């Protein structure tokens, strides 16, 4: 069913962590909201698999980059919210810098300036 | 550290975490469903869509839990608990598996403990791996056993470059008297360098010094055992004068409890060697043992080369001609033949364990198929292959652990038996299940679980849920599994054949040893030594020996008594060179014969047999032409094809003044040195006619007594008789000849018994293996058999088709096994004591036994197959 969406991109290995951290910079959110946010902001190009989202969240938590707390959702239900820790903020900056370098490098290889188009 | 604490806390709050995780995922599902409802789906459809999107809830939870860390430990604990439940649920299966493993692991554990104690653990010397023994190499085969001369040791010590130092020891006798009952104790003379070479520190006071050795100061170092036994463990024994062979010796020190040194563990008194002047120059007097410490950086090979070259220069003066030396690591010399025995038995126990493993693998594979449905359900619920393999392996590990525990219980009695295998040259050993042995056993259990469990785990986890869940489906079938099981059976059979063949060869060797004609009647023959150090004077000695023998003969129950200078079957050289008429010393280097000094009644007492001529008689008195009895080996070597009677030989003193002895009799094959060794040329002289030998130390001190009844019963009376002649006359090493023979046979007997036990167990397991695989095949193919029978196959044909399969397996296993056995038997040649066992007979018997056993193992399932009722079989589908 999902497979017939034509223009969806597979998440690159290791990028989910960066996306989660970036999403949480806007403020605390629960798992479902994080997934939807990523999906919406990428205009449905990125689909977060629940099967990898929760393991990733718990992994980031174990590393101390995000911290959980039980709070009420907008609809008044108890939900597990995650927020960015100071450690996570630093990690986000580092990951972000790495990602930018990576993109720039990819771009240089894919669009060399001295090559005729 | 903090992450460790955090994990610990998590572990403590695990159930909370589980609940939280469930709630978190539940919340996600609800959100997702709500969202889909908003998109226009019906409430139910929205819920299902959300579920589908999430995938298997269990898998997501599992993967998430994995992020917590330590899940492997929890999983392991859960699998182990599940494994234990399985054990309880299938008591017969588990019982068989655990018993099989207990035999395998127990055998290996016990063998390892003995191997470790004799061949691995440090000897009680400093840096014992650098210690070597040096022997004269008379054969060029670098064999040990030929004693160097003290004169050689002196020359070596002066000129060698490869050792930090060398020490020599010599046999000695010690009668302790004066301070209590006269007692003969094992003693040895040693050069003062022995203590520094071995790096041994005394427990009390000091050892003797170089200058005491050189000047011949009468000092002694005593063993811990003697100190406790005779001197009550009192520290003021140091400085005390004790009477050794009626001379005062000052005790200067006590050795530590764990100290012992070649050639026997029980030496009680060490005295300075103080070689007399004549011995320092005499290259013909060979009675020393030499131990040396390699210099740092010097290899064994280099020491061997360097010493061989030196020895050839030094021994030009030896009557046996220039010869090389053999430099051997001390531990190997101490362990002797036991080393080979232990290695062979350790390998045999490993082979048995391997058979047990293969059996287990087969059993697990059969069971894996039976559990196909369970596995299929788990796969359908989202269990990954790795997870399944881990679970199967954990279950096998539980079985292996239980097997190892039962094995440890079995190993304990086996260890008591193995302790007696430790050679007399080494300290006594108390084998226990200590940390090392338990660690080994645990490692073996893990290895067993991995080797036996991996294949079945991989097989068992390769199930697709569709096939596994289908009604009536048979899970895995197919030829790859059959092929695998068949090769496992082949391994098992081949190993069993190797063990059986090795056992057969050892058994044959032992039979030969035990039935060797010793040339005497061993039953009811009491022997002991009566040291004669007080009787240097020849006429006094003759008189004393004769009166003592008369006293012994007067004891009720004594039939006959005699004396000899060296007890038969005691492995020690007492040899001298001889000349035949017309020969000179120069023509005949190395012409040596064993010689023994006997009393007149000796041969008749031991029941020796005469080939021709006569034994010594009353008419043999002191004369210028004394009589000699020779053995068959001597006669055959010097007088091939003719009678030696009346021939003359010069013996002992070879110069003009020496006597010519006349051969009056030839004794049939009398074993002097060991049971296994073919008799060497030997000459027997009558004590009363050997006045030429008075300085050479050979005395007829070994008494042999033929008794009417049980020999042990008359020992007190004999002691009494001896004391009545001289109350300070000790006797020792009292035993019957049968006990002496028994002692010589103990190593081959134990080795044979263990090897046979391993072989029979392997045979049993292998036959169980064949039986299991065929039974399983019959069970699997009941359907097919039913069809064949319905189509007209006779039960005989069915029987034959299964029987053929078993036979083919057996024959291939036999062929592979015999090939391996040929290789294995070469490595254990030292245990065959120079015999050439009859291979053909062994192989024939082994083949027949294997065929018979496996025929029985095949027949049962094959008959079951032939009795399948086609109606029942087809209905069962």
Could you explain how this protein is built, in words?
The complex is a heterodimer of chains A (117) and B (877). With 117 residues, chain A is α+β, with helices and mostly antiparallel strands. Chain A contains 4 helices and 3 strands. The longest helix of chain A has 25 residues. Chain A is globular. Chain B folds into 4 domains: 68 residues, no CATH class; 184 residues, no CATH class; 311 residues, no CATH class; 198 residues, no CATH class. In chain B, α20 packs antiparallel against α23. Chain B has 28 helices and 21 strands. In chain B, the strands form 3 sheets. A 6-stranded mixed β-barrel of chain B has the order 2-3-8-5-7-6. A 6-stranded mixed β-barrel of chain B has the order 13-14-19-16-18-17. Chain B is elongated, with a radius of gyration of 37 Å. Chain B has 877 residues and is α+β, with helices and mostly antiparallel strands. Classes of the chains: A alpha+beta (117), B alpha+beta (877). Chains A and B meet through α2, α3 and β3 of A and α2, α3 and α4 of B.
SSE layout and pairing:
The complex is a heterodimer of chains A (117) and B (877).
Chain A: H1 15-25, E1 29-30, H2 31-41, H3 50-63, E2 66-72, E3 78-84, H4 86-110
Antiparallel strand pairs in A: 1-3, 2-3
Chain B: H1 2-12, H2 14-38, H3 43-54, H4 57-67, H5 71-89, H6 91-120, E1 131-137, H7 150-159, E2 163-177, E3 183-190, H8 193-198, E4 204-205, H9 210-215, E5 219-222, H10 224-231, E6 241-244, E7 247-254, E8 269-272, H11 277-281, E9 289-294, H12 300-314, E10 324-329, H13 330-335, H14 337-370, H15 372-380, H16 385-419, H17 435-460, H18 465-469, H19 479-514, E11 525-529, H20 538-553, E12 558-564, E13 575-579, E14 592-598, H21 602-606, E15 610-613, E16 627-631, H22 632-638, E17 648-651, E18 660-667, E19 682-686, E20 702-707, H23 715-725, E21 732-736, H24 737-780, H25 782-790, H26 795-827, H27 839-866, H28 870-875
Parallel strand pairs in B: 3-8, 5-7, 14-19, 16-18
Antiparallel strand pairs in B: 1-9, 1-10, 2-3, 2-6, 2-9, 4-7, 5-8, 6-7, 11-20, 11-21, 12-20, 13-14, 13-17, 15-18, 16-19, 17-18
Helix pairs in contact in B: 2-3, 5-6, 5-16, 6-14, 6-16, 6-17, 7-12, 14-17, 14-19, 14-24, 16-17, 19-24, 19-26, 19-27, 20-23, 24-27, 26-27
């Amino acid at each position: 069913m999902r497979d017939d969406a034509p223009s969806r991109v597979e998440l690159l290995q290791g990028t989910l962590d960066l996306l989660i951290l970036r999403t949480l910079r806007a403020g605390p959110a629960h798992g479902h909201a994080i997934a939807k946010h990523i999906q919406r902001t990428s205009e449905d190009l990125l689909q977060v698999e629940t099967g990898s989202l929760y393991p990733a969240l718990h992994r980031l938590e174990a590393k101390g980059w995000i911290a959980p707390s039980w709070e009420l959702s907008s609809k008044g239900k108890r939900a597990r919210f995650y927020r960015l820790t100071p450690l996570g903020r630093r990690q986000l900056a580092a990951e972000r810098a790495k990602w930018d370098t990576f993109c720039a490098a990819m771009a240089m290889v894919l669009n060399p300036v001295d090559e005729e188009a | 550290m903090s992450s460790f604490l955090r994990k610990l806390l998590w572990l403590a709050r695990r159930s909370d975490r589980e609940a939280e995780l469930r709630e978190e995922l539940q919340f996600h599902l609800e959100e997702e469903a709500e969202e889909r409802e908003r998109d226009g789906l019906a409430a139910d459809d929205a819920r299902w869509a959300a579920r589908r999107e999430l995938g298997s809830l269990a898998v997501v939870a599992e993967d998430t839990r994995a992020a917590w860390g330590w899940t492997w430990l929890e999983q392991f604990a859960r699998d182990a608990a599940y494994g234990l439940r399985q054990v309880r649920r299938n008591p017969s299966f588990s019982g068989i598996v655990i018993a099989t493993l207990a035999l395998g692991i127990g055998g290996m554990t016990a063998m390892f403990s003995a191997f470790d104690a004799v061949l691995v653990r440090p000897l009680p010397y400093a840096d014992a791996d650098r210690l070597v023994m040096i022997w004269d190499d008379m054969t060029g085969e670098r064999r040990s056993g030929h004693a160097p001369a003290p004169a050689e040791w002196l020359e070596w010590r002066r000129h060698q470059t490869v050792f930090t130092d060398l020490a020599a020891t010599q046999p000695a006798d010690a009668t302790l008297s004066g301070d209590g009952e006269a007692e003969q104790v094992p003693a040895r003379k040693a050069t003062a360098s022995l203590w520094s070479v071995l790096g041994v520190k005394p427990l009390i006071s000091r050892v003797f010094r170089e200058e005491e050795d050189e000047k011949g100061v009468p000092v002694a170092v005593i063993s811990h055992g003697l100190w406790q036994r005779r001197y009550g463990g009192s520290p003021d024994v140091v400085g005390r004068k004790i009477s050794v062979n009626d001379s005062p010796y000052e005790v200067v020190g006590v050795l530590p409890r764990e100290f012992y040194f070649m050639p026997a563990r029980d030496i009680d008194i060490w005295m300075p060697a103080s070689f007399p002047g004549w011995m320092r120059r005499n290259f013909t007097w060979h009675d020393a043992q030499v131990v040396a410490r390699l210099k740092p950086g010097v290899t064994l090979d280099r020491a061997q080369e360097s010493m061989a070259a030196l020895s050839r220069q030094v021994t030009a003066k030896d009557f046996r001609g220039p010869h090389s030396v053999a430099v051997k690591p001390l531990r190997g010399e101490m362990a002797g033949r036991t080393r080979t025995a232990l290695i062979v038995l350790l390998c045999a126990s490993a082979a048995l364990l391997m058979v047990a493993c293969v059996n287990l693998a087969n059993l697990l594979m059969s069971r894996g198929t039976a559990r196909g449905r369970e596995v299929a359900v788990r796969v359908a619920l989202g269990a990954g292959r790795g997870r399944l393999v881990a679970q199967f392996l954990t279950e096998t590990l539980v079985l292996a652990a239980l097997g190892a525990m039962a094995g440890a219980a079995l190993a304990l009695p086996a260890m008591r038996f193995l302790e007696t295998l430790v050679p007399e040259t080494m300290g006594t050993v108390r084998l226990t299940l200590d940390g090392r042995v338990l660690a080994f056993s645990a490692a073996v259990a893990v290895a067993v679980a991995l080797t036996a469990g991996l294949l079945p785990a991989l097989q068992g986890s390769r199930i697709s849920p569709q096939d596994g869940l289908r009604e009536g489906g048979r899970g895995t079938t197919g030829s790859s599994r059959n092929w695998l099981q068949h090769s496992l059976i082949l391994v098992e059979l081949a190993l069993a054949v190797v063990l059986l063949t090795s056992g057969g060869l050892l058994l044959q060797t032992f039979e030969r040893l035990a039935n060797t004609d010793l040339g005497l009647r061993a039953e009811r023959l009491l022997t002991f030594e009566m040291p004669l150090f007080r009787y240097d004077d020849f006429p006094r000695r003759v008189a004393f020996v004769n009166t003592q023998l008369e006293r012994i003969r007067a004891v009720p129950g004594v039939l006959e008594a005699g004396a000899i200078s060296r007890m038969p079957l005691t492995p020690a050289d007492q040899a001298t060179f001889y000349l035949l008429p017309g020969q000179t010393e120069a023509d005949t280097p190395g012409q040596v014969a064993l010689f023994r000094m006997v009393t007149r009644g000796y041969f008749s007492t031991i029941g020796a047999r005469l080939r021709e001529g006569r034994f010594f008689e009353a008419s043999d008195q002191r004369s210028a032409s004394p009589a000699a009895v020779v053995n068959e080996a001597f006669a055959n070597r010097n007088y091939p094809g003719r009678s030696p009677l009346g021939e003359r030989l010069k013996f002992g003193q070879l110069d003009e003044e020496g006597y010519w002895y006349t051969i009056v009799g030839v004794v049939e094959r009398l074993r002097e040195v060991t049971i296994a060794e073919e008799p060497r040329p030997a000459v027997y002289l009558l004590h009363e006619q050997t006045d030429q030998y008075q300085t050479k130390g050979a005395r007829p001190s070994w008494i042999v007594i033929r008794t009417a009844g049980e020999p042990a019963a008359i020992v007190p009376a004999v002691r009494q008789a001896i004391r009545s002649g001289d109350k300070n006359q000790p006797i020792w090493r009292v035993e019957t000849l049968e006990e002496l023979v028994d002692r010589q046979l103990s190593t081959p007997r134990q080795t044979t018994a263990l090897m046979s036990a391993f072989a029979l167990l392997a045979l049993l397991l292998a036959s169980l293996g064949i039986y299991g695989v065929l039974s399983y095949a019959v069970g699997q193919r009941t359907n097919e058999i039913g069809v064949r029978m319905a189509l007209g196959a006779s039960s005989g044909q069915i029987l034959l088709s299964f029987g053929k399969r078993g036979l083919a397996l057996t024959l291939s296993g036999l062929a592979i096994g015999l090939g391996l056995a040929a290789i294995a038997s070469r490595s254990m040649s030292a245990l065959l004591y120079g015999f050439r066992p009859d291979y053909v007979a062994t192989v024939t018997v082994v083949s027949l036994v294997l065929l018979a056993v496996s025929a029985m193992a095949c027949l049962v399932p094959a008959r079951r197959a032939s009795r399948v009722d086609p109606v029942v079989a087809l209905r069962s589908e």
